[in-house]
Amino acid sequence: MNKILKDIIRYILVAVLIIGALMVYFSKIATNTLLSKTYVANKLEETGYYQKIYNEIYEDFSNYIMQSGLEESVLNDVITVDSIKSDTKIILDNFYSGLNMPINKDIIREKLISNINKYVEENNLTIQDQGSIDTFTNLITLQYDYDINAHTQQDENIYKTISETKITVNKAKKVGFLIVAVSLILLFLLSLKDIYRLIALGGIASTFIGSIFLILIQFINKNIPIENLYFSNEPLSEALRLLAKENVEMIYNHGVIMLVVGIIAIILGNFIESKTNSDEQYSSGRKKSHKHRHRHTHTSSMV
After folding, report:
1. What residues does each domain of the chain span?
2. Predicted TM-score (pTM) above 0.85
3. Using one digit for the tens of pLDDT, what is the confidence trace for 98-114?
């Protein structure tokens, strides 16, 4: 095969390899972060989400207490951090596994009614309007449902979206792996006689990937203020910001590593090629010199 044509094919394969590697990389990030129930739950734990959402829900409840004329003591133990953690797990299961399980609103209602009855008995009060009490308990449970579900009431739609995204991402990952494997095999076959070329070509691919990562991070830092990201409520937004920061930092670090490794590989590959060519020229020169001396000796002996 013509050397120029072979080089063109090599560089095309390197470009294809880069595309495949990027598909695999970003597919793995998506799979291991937003599409992972365990990862999301860990981020909620790390940011103290459960305590913060508890405080937010309790504050919302207190607003209803002020309007009802009841004492705040009726809210004692109606919700706890542990119960919020349990309900959040149910919601995540609904989002990621499609279980469609209800949260424990009935338990909240029962505790609230029990506390109200206790308050009435201890203060020798008489309930004049049971309908108002029922309305109050309904408002409290609805507010809890609204807050704990992060202001969303579309479990099925969210599950469908996550499931479809998982399928798409998994397909992209498989295609990416296939592209990387085929590209590497073809590059290896094209470089059997000059294997050092693989090192330099790998370096080029690594350098391009690292550069793409760094350019991407620069774009994100310039155009997407992570500190201002907000979704639904502040506790959830804080977890989202932590997730974004960690992944931006990870991509940046990987970009630097890929860039440095790529440059080293290019230098090493070119050095080996230069040394190989130099050795071949030296060997070729010695052979020519040996042939010349051999001919000169043969001519002298004839004379």
Report:
1. 3-38+164-298, 41-153
2. no
3. 888 888 888 999 999 99
